[in-house]
Amino acid sequence: MTRMVFTAQALYQTMLRAFPAEFRAAFGEEMAEQFSERLADAAEQGIWTVALVGGREIWQWPAALLRSHFYYWRKRRQHIGQVWNRRPLFGVPPFANDGRFSSQKRLLELLPFLFTMSLIVYLTYWPQVKRAAPLEMAMVWAGVVPLLALLLGLARGLPRWAYPYAGLLFGYTLWLAVAQRLVWLWMLLSLTAVSLAILAVIVNHGERPLPILWQQIEASIALDWTRLSFGLFGSTPLLILAAFDNAFLNHRTPYLALALLVMLLTAFAYSR
To answer: Are 116 and 141 in contact (CB under 8 A)?
Structure first.
């Protein structure tokens, strides 16, 4: 019984580490003491009561975790301009400017959609052209250019215009995985990378400062969480190609052009 109680307390301490640092500082010690008292009372009634108390905490933990993170995220966002309103000499870099307030940056946001739309239309509705050079250009654009743009965006603090390039690169790697029949490997690697990143942020955020790159990414997402969906939308050109995989055989189909037009209008709405 003593070992079970000790294991439950250790598990509860681990679960508390997933909460925001502000929450742990305010309520962590009190919650741990209350849980220990409930475990002590349950231990007097038997092992099943201890298991019931522990199971109830595990059942309620995900909802409480989401509520606490959402609350402190909103609280930090309200003071975002006051905390990082200028670049300090040492410390956290400032937030990247939101591209919606700059016509030049809006053009950078729309550029991957404009170029891929033009290239797809050119290759589909002009069947008499020699496609070797355009296809090579398409491969370079879909792979190398988005990677370079994403690296440039990371160097600039991950502004809004960098997200569509990340989405295009994401879709390109998935496209290659499907072509090489390595979808399961791609999914495994992607889920592993995302899980490790989230775990690193949750566990280490309250213990020591994150690396500058992670702080920039966190600041960029905290400024406007819709950037994540905008980034995923960057993979739309490749999704359209997958949906109209026989478009090269039917050059007169209007649906591919309509889908590309809707994609461009949606990207413009995102940039607004």
So the answer is: yes
- Looking at the structure, tell me whether residues 54 and 174 fall in a common domain: no
Contact 5, 50 (CB under 8 A): yes
Per-residue tokens: 218? 């966190």
In sequence order, the 6+-apart residues with CB closer than 8 A to the CB of 153 are: 159, 161, 162, 163, 165, 166
Give the integer Cα–Cα distance in Å for 24 and 20: 6
Phi, psi torsion values for 91, nearest 5 degrees: 115, -150
One-letter amino acid for residue 159 of the chain: P
Cα of 79 vs its chain's centroid, Å = 22
Instruction: Return the structure tokens found at 150.
Output: 């994403």
Stated pTM of the model: 0.55
pLDDT in tens, the chain (272 residues): 577 777 777 888 888 888 888 888 888 888 888 888 887 888 778 777 878 888 888 888 888 888 888 887 777 666 554 444 444 433 444 444 554 556 677 788 888 888 888 878 877 777 655 555 555 666 667 678 888 888 888 887 788 888 888 888 888 888 778 777 888 888 888 888 777 777 766 665 555 666 677 777 777 777 767 778 888 888 888 888 777 766 555 556 777 888 888 888 888 887 76
| Same domain? 122 vs 246 | yes
Q: Are residues 39 and 106 in the same domain?
A: no
Range of the domain at 28: 2-78
Q: How many CB atoms lie within 10 A of CB 120?
A: 21
